[in-house]
Specification:
Length: about 325
């Protein structure tokens, strides 16, 4: 039991010391100056470090499709347990399910429906189970993107380490898959102060970890266009928080399928896109595959050609072309 919950329990019947009450309503412990003490210039410069630029929502999708659907699978497997350096056998086995069972079940479903997807893979995950590369490449429809080297918490790393791991991840994925990745997804969906600069120097054409829109947009760095396409994600469109069986927010897979269906229906109505993130070690389980099948059936019921199922890379290049964005701009140009 935590100090916080015991304080709440005791407060009904005995005198509670002041320090314990303070625990019941925790104040963030930080040396940072709170926002109310900032100048407007400080607020602007922090907000502008990485911000959404112009919308890259196209006037039309290819071949008269009404909306685009982008499926991502973050193939984290054991790297989430390994990254902090204190893995347990149980956690590793839970994660190994993705490599051993989940991925194949997902690929089989995608192939049955001839649906392409993008697989963001930490290179350690692929090195631990290299057969996953052949499985993903089997249909010739799928894309592989960078997802850190070992799913490292990039926000906590010094510039030189983050840079070295991104380079290593690109080099190893290129070697293992035979193609240089063009897309990046940050482990745990966050940027350090150096991440965007590293992505620009590494030649990425698109990024998919931020959340300013549900349509594609251009990333700005300190107010300047970068030419990098952002394909935004959202926690409500990620399986990890809601499917966590030991988490406080667990939801039934069929209820989650309804969230995905509602998100798709609005995207279809607005002519925009749905980007859904899943993990083989989470969504590869049987009851979750049922939820994914419900979504696919709902989308396919719109009729042939009504939806553009595409990889992230294909959507990024399509919106780049439609918006006449040009190539990503190296820093300082
Ligand atoms: Zn991940």
């Amino acid at each position: 039991m935590s100090i916080r919950s015991s304080a709440l329990r005791m407060s009904c019947c005995i005198a509670v010391p002041g320090w314990l009450l303070a625990q019941a309503q925790p104040v963030p412990q930080t040396t940072a100056k709170p926002g109310w003490m900032w100048t407007m210039d400080s607020a602007r410069s922090v907000v502008n470090a990485v911000r959404a630029g112009r919308s890259l929502q196209p006037a039309k999708w290819p071949n008269g499709a009404r909306a685009a659907v982008l499926l991502s699978f973050d193939v984290d497997n054991e790297t989430v347990a390994l990254r902090f350096g204190e893995p347990t056998v149980g956690a590793l086995s839970q994660a190994e399910y993705g490599a051993r069972v989940g991925l194949e079940r997902i690929i089989t479903l995608l192939d049955r429906h001839k649906i392409p997807a993008t697989f963001f893979i930490p290179s350690v995950s692929l090195a631990l189970t290299p057969s996953m590369g052949d499985l993903i490449k089997r249909s010739g429809r799928n894309e592989i993107g960078v997802h850190g080297w070992i799913h490292e918490m990039n926000v906590t790393l010094p510039d030189s380490v983050e840079r070295r791991l991104v380079k290593k991840a690109i080099d190893e994925l290129t070697k293992m898959t035979g193609a240089r990745p063009v897309g990046y997804r940050a482990p745990s969906w966050n940027f350090s102060p150096n991440t965007l600069a590293i992505l620009r120097e590494s030649g990425f054409r698109y990024e998919s970890s931020l959340m300013s829109d549900d349509r594609a947009y251009e990333l700005l760095q300190n107010g300047q266009p970068t030419g990098i396409v952002e394909l935004p994600v959202q926690w409500i469109l990620d399986d990890a928080p809601l499917f966590d069986p030991v988490g406080a927010r667990y939801a039934s897979p069929r209820d989650i399928a309804q969230v995905w269906i509602d998100e798709f229906d609005k995207a279809y109505e607005e002519g925009t896109m749905l980007l859904l993130t899943m993990h083989p070690h989470i969504s590869g389980h049987r009851s979750r595959i049922v939820a994914f099948e419900l979504l696919i059936a709902h989308i396919e019921a719109k009729g042939a050609g009504k939806v553009w199922w595409a990889t992230h890379g294909d959507v990024a290049e399509y919106v780049r072309g439609e918006a006449k964005l040009g190539d990503p701009r190296p820093r300082g140009k």
